Amino acid sequence: MSANKRYGMSIDIDKCNGCGACMMACAVENNIPPAPEAANDRRGVTWIRVYKVDNHLAYPERRTAFVPVLCQQCGHDTPCVHVCPQQAVDVDPETGIVGQMPERCLGCRYCMVACPYHARYFNWWDPKWPAGMEKTLNPDVAPRMRGVVEKCNFCHGRWHAAQQKAAAAGQREIDAADYVPACVEACPTGALRFGDLSDSSTEVAQDAQRPESFRLLEKIGTEPKIHYRSRRDWVREIASAPRPEGKDGLRG
Amino acid sequence: MASVDKEFITRGLRRSSTGRFLLWILPWVALLVFGLYSAGLCLVKGLNQTNMDNRFAFGLWIFLDLTVIALGAGAFFTGFLLYILKIDELRSVINSAVVIGLVCYSGAVTVLAVDVGQPLRSWFTFWYPNVHSMLTEVTFCISCYLTVLLIEYLPIVLRNRKLHDVPSFLVFEHELHKLIYVLAGVGTFLSFFHQGSLGGLYGVLRGRPFAFREGLAVWPSTFFLFILSAAAVGPSFILLTTWLVEKLSRKRLVRPTVFRRLARISGLLLAVYVLAKAVDTLVWINRTSPGTGFQAWQYYSWKPFGTWILFAEIVVFGLLPALVMLTPRLRAHTGWLVTAAAMACCGVALNRFVMTVQTLALPTLSFDPYLSYYPSWQEVGTFLAVVAYGVLVYSFSFRYFNLFPEERELRLEAAAQEEEELALAGRY
């Protein structure tokens, strides 16, 4: 049995240019259907969402940054896990990844209410692909049905593929290069990094230790495994609680 | 039009003619049909028929479900007071309380079945229960308590004049009645737990500092506050509905002392609740919320949810009705009594609204916008179906079953008094 891992991600906000390639790659990898006509940005499904934030100052002091937000893979008192009434959400002790079982999900959406990062999405419509496009579906990932919740699972299909490859080669450990989530692979600026946070030799673990590194809403104590970083002070403030308009708060 | 169904109406009770009764139920049936159509759309086409979204994952239905379940608490609490604490005066409203409880709980469960994305998987909660989830506790307790309510409703049905003629029903009803103390005890236990778990649903939300509360062992303070508030407004709702039925049917159904007793119990519990809620709010403002990085003033800076909502919840709809119901001079006036009871019920509704809607409207991330939500007509329609269903079940129960055991006695007393007055006036 291999030692337990703690997969996480580091995101360099100063490098993110908001191109959205991560969102596209994620959708293609994980069989996320195109949004129906009636959907809006509050009812669509996207496992990773790039928010645009600014420093709330007028031109010429106005500065902008992009913050990709995905499931933060909370490592302590995971809010969504302990609220699910039928164990459709769990934390894999082997990887530390918070998993979602759509086949068991009741669609009560209590986990969405519990998640402070709004990283969970409900299927308000039946998944539909334009004629012919269904041929592009990833055979390693099952599409989800209407009425269930889904979220980022660090490309679980890729983790399985890496495990199978290692097993075929007679190895117990997967090669880190074989398991890279689609968003990390697609990021053109290298803003996203992925790896085992419990292994201090990995880039992601070292990123997490940098002084400019921070996590979203750290004070609520959920120990997220997504580490953001920025050299700009005002960007690091996004980790804190919201402030209403007129209180020099940030604006999303 | 004479009553064609008079054989079914309890002996000694007067009910309106069949035609008049049909006229009364007709609009409610129309509302029920419209509501069922709305619910059908949600079930067939999916929850895209609602205005809920990924941020407002709970909406009108959960808010009203919580309110209805709190108001329905009168059933278990009256049972507890009557059968366990032996306050015999409440026997005159217990049947009505059971019907109200049944209507509230069955209605809420039905709406929940529409509210979930995969209603056919509801049994999964029993098969793969997550013992750490408050929702599991709610599901188990509500299902069990609904069964208890159905069993408690059976003797009321079986005492119907026509059904009473069937000997086996008579025996069955008699045997069921022997169980009533056990049922009241079980119902009380289950109700305490699920009312609490409904509060716990929000109190455990570490990721929503507006709702998150510290507490005792695994139970956040909202667990206890929900029990207390439901127990406080349950008798108020019984008082309110009884008064309403008296007005609509133009009959005296219970003695004024029963109203006053219900008000005293409600007022006392409401006062304790207001005190507990005030202490809880102070602890939350000064310790719990700042501990999570959120200053409590922030929540009330997002309009329209200013501090007025806190004031309205604790003082206007909590302290004021409690004081009215605890003051003998005010309690003696039905007008004050009914107003206070209605205010207490509004207070619990406001609390459930705050816990559901305000919790979800407030942003958690610094770059989150503050969001609003308006229910779609399908959501409103589905809930109206429950209201219509409730009115219909209650109307039929009132017509064909003996919901107020003192009604006949009161009618005879009133008739005797009238005769006496006429005699005194020298008209004979």
What would the average pLDDT of chain A be, to the nearest integer? Answer: 92
Give me the number of helical elements of chain A.
7
Q: Write the CATH fold name of chain B.
A: Formate dehydrogenase/DMSO reductase fold
Helix content of chain B: over 70%
What Rg of chain B is obtained from the alpha carbons, in whole angstroms?
A: 23 Å
Which stretches of chain B are low in confidence, meaning pLDDT under 50 for 5 or more residues running? Answer: none
List the helices and strands and how they pair.
The complex is a heterodimer of chains A (252) and B (428).
Chain A: E1 7-12, H1 21-29, E2 48-54, E3 64-70, H2 79-83, E4 89-91, E5 98-100, H3 110-114, E6 120-122, E7 149-151, H4 156-168, H5 182-186, E8 192-196, H6 203-209, E9 213-214, E10 226-229, H7 233-236
Chain B: H1 18-45, H2 60-71, H3 73-84, H4 91-115, H5 124-127, H6 134-158, H7 167-178, H8 180-203, E1 215-216, E2 219-220, H9 221-249, H10 256-291, H11 296-299, H12 308-326, H13 328-331, H14 334-361, H15 377-400, H16 407-424
Antiparallel strand pairs in B: 1-2
Helix pairs in contact in B: 1-15, 2-4, 2-14, 3-4, 3-8, 3-9, 4-6, 4-15, 6-7, 6-8, 8-9, 9-10, 9-14, 10-12, 10-14, 12-14
Commentary on this structure:
The complex is a heterodimer of chains A (252) and B (428). The N and C termini of chain A lie far apart (45 Å). In chain A, 19% of the residues lie in helices and 17% in strands. Chain A is α+β, with helices and mostly antiparallel strands and 252 residues long. Chain A has one domain (7-239): 2-Layer Sandwich (Alpha-Beta Plaits), CATH 3.30.70. Chain A is globular, with a radius of gyration of 18 Å. Chain A has 7 helices and 10 strands. Residues 246-252 of chain A have low confidence and may be disordered. Chain B has one domain: Formate dehydrogenase/DMSO reductase domain (Formate dehydrogenase/DMSO reductase fold).
